[in-house]
Design brief:
alpha+beta, 172 residues, globular, Nuclear Transport Factor 2, Chain: A
């Protein structure tokens, strides 16, 4: 009986090394240094930040673009790798509206949310598993799995996403 060669847990593009490299390039120190710098937030702030992340996913999935837009600060910067880069809530909202125009129901599921006060900003990290079903029966099903690395700011309207980096683990 032949043994199958072990397959990597992640495709060549993305995966834990690429995610770690992306985070280091964008200011995350990682490891023990990160553990000593990071401080937990109060429960009310954590709940409010999780609510923003949930509003983001709900806004896309329900095509409620004003709700989606409300998640971002006016000086928002987004880097979603091969999908694009945007500045400001209008640019990312316009892109997502157009990108989801020709797909059916979607599910943007977030998990493994961690929120830490790093002194100069608050970082929220979450895993995303996005399922995009076809508009027409028999059409292609798309799935994007990865990690959101967010910088959150407190505004007069509550917590907002000021910067979001999406690191893909698997796209298909």
């Amino acid at each position: 009986m032949q043994r199958a060669e072990p397959q990597p847990a992640y495709p060549k593009k993305g995966g834990p090394r690429a995610t770690a490299a992306m985070l280091r390039a964008n200011g995350a120190s990682g490891g023990a240094a990160m553990a000593t710098m990071a401080r937990p937030l109060c429960a009310d702030d954590e709940r409010a930040i999780v609510a923003v992340l949930t509003r983001y996913a709900t806004g896309i999935d329900t095509r409620d673009w004003p709700l989606f837009r409300s998640c971002f600060s006016e000086d928002f910067e987004g880097d979603f790798g091969s999908f694009g880069k945007w500045r400001g809530p209008r640019e990312i909202t316009d892109f997502m509206r157009e990108a989801h125009r020709e797909v059916g129901p979607t599910l943007h599921r977030l998990s493994n949310i961690s929120i830490e006060d790093e002194g100069h900003h608050v970082r929220a990290r979450s895993y995303v598993d996005a399922l995009l079903m076809p508009l027409a029966e028999g059409g292609p099903i798309h799935r994007g799995i990865g990690c959101y690395d967010d910088r959150m700011i407190r505004s007069s309207d509550g917590w907002k996403i000021a910067r979001r980096i999406f690191a893909a683990v698997r796209l298909g």
